[in-house]
User: What shape does this take?
Amino acid sequence: MEQSKKLFERSKKVSPGGVHSPVRAFKSVGGEPIFFERSEGPYLYSVDGQKFIDFCQAFGPLMLGHRDSEVVSEVEEMLHTAWGMGACEPYSLELAEWITNRVPGIEAIRFVNSGTEAVMSALRVARAATGRNKILKFDGCYHGHVDSMLVKAGSGLAGASAADSAGVSDKQDTVVAQLNDLQSVRDVFAAHPNSIAAVILEPLPANFGLIIQEENFIKSVMEIARAQGALVIFDEVISGFRVALGGMAELLGVKPDLCTYGKIIGGGFPVGAFGGRRNLMNLVAPVGPVYQAGTLSANPVSTRAGLATLKKIERENIYQVIDQRAEGFCAELGRLFKKFKVPYEVTRYKSIFWVHEETSRPIRSLKDIPQGFRETFPKFFHSLLEHGVYFPPSAYEVQFLSYAHTEEVLGQALYRIEHALASLK
Assistant: This one.
C-alpha cells in the first residue's frame, strides 16, 4: 500500500482529513484509505496494483457495476456532443419522461446535483405548500447534509463525539420520532400541533445499517401525517430504482406526496432529483414561488448515463437476476459465519445486504442494533482487504450487489471471504 500511503500524505495537506467525504478516511475501521485508480465491472484496482471485488459500488449508484459498456457508449457519445450547456436540452427531458411514465405518483420531476440538494428542495416545497416550518424525521435516517437533517442522522455520524454536526442551524425546526414506533410519531404530532409541514422517511432505512421497516408501520405513518395535514416525503436516494423501478413506493403500493432520488438515476455520475404531485411541483420556480436553481442541474452526461442504466435494467429484467444472486450469496455468507463460529449474520433486502453481529430479533430500530459490532468489524474489514474483498469502510454502511457480480464472481468472493474468516481464527 506504499503508493496509497504517499497519496494520502499528500492529500492531507490540501483537504480536510485527506478526503472529500468522511467515511473514505477509514476513521471508523482504522488504518489508512486505499487509493484506487481504475474500476471495471465488480472490481476496483488500487494504485498499488491490487484487485478487489467491490461490494461498495460507490455506495449504491452502480446497479450495473463499474463502467458498464452500454453506459460507457452513451457517455462517450455525449462527450463528443456536449457535456454542459446551462440551457434546455433533450437529454434530461428524455430521462424525466421515462421516470414520470413509469413511477406512480411522480407527475413532475426536477433534476439537481445530489441527494442532499433534492432533500433540501423537497423540504422547501413542503414548507411552502403547508405554510408550516417543522419537519419530522426518524432517528438514524440520513437525508444528506442539509442543516436541519443532520439531527440523529445515521452512519456518517456514527461513533462521532456528538449526535449532530457542528455549525448546524435551524435544529428547532426538526423533530424526531423513532423507527418502528407509531406512538412516538403520534406523540411528536401531539407536541407540535399544526406545525409539522412534512414527515420525511427512508422507506428502506439503509444509512445506519439496513433497518427494514414493516409495511404496516410505513403506511400508518403516512395515515397519521396526512390526518394531521402534513405531507409525506420518501427519501429514495438509495432504494429508488435499486429495489424496483418505482422504488419502495411501488413495492408498498403507495404514493408519497414527494420523493427524492439520486445515485442510480445518474448511472454513477453526480445527480439528484425530487418529484411528486404536479400541484406541489408547480410551486417550484419559474412556475411558483419556491426558488431552486443550479448551474449544473440536469447535466446531459449524467442524465444520459442514468437513462442508459435504467433502460438496461428494465430491458434485461435485472431485478429478478440480481435479487436471486444476492439471496444465494447471502445464504452462503451466513453459512461461512456459522462454519467459523463467527457471531455475524446477514440482513438483506433485494440487492442490498448488511453484515452485522448476531441478534435475537429483527433489526427494526436503532435500539435493535448490536452494540459490539463497531469494535469487531475493523478486524474483519481489514482481513477482507487482505484477501481482495472491499466492503464499505464502516460497520454501519450497507453492501451492494451489482449486475456485474456474476455467479462466478460471487463464487470467487465467497472463496476469499472464507480464507479471510479462517485467518481471523
About this structure: The two ends are 24 Å apart (CA to CA). The chain has two domains: 2-67+317-424, 69-315.
